[in-house]
Amino acid sequence: MNYIEKQVYLEKLTEVCDFVNLASRYSCDVKVKSNSHVVDGKSILGILTLALWEPVTVSACGTDAHDFAAKLASFKPQ
Questions:
Q1: Is 60 within 8 Å of 29 (Cβ atoms)?
Q2: Sign, Cα dihedral of 64, 16, 33, 45
Q3: How far apart are CA 3 and CA 55, in angstroms?
Q4: Could you tell me the pTM of the whole model?
Q5: CA separation, residue 21 to residues 5, 17, 63, 74 (Å)
Q6: How many Cα neighbours within 13 Å face the side chain of 65?
Q7: Helices (H), 1-78
Q8: What residues contact 38, with CB distance under 8 A and at least 6 apart?
Q9: d(CA 48, CA 26)
Q10: Domains and CATH numbers, the chain
Q11: pLDDT (tens digit per residue) in 10-64
């Protein structure tokens, strides 16, 4: 089982939609954390409840977690 954790920015609604669409293509379990709140990374509504003005932590666990992580480059903090 593979596990990854990365910091990303999801500041715009289009970025949230792109992120959820990307996460939904993979079978790994994706979680997004902001402060102490953790939500399903495949849920637009869940992600929109987070403090998106700061970077969030994305974690993925599963056989394709590393493949998913490789696609997160466009969401990385500057």
A1: yes
A2: negative
A3: 19
A4: 0.92
A5: 19, 6, 18, 14
A6: 17
A7: 13-24, 44-48, 65-70
A8: 31, 32
A9: 20
A10: 2-75 (3.30.1340.10)
A11: 999 999 999 999 999 999 999 999 999 999 999 999 999 999 999 999 999 999 9
Tell which residue, 43, 41, 37, has the closest CA to residue 8: 41
- Does the pLDDT at position 78 exceed 60? no
Q: What is the DSSP letter of 36?
A: T
Cβ atoms of 52 and 16 within 8 Å: the answer is: yes
φ/ψ of residue 74, rounded to 5: -70, -10
- Identify the CA nearest to 62 among candidates 23, 33, 35: 23
Contact status, residue 58 vs residue 30, Cβ threshold 8 Å: yes
Cα 28 from chain centroid (whole Å): 11
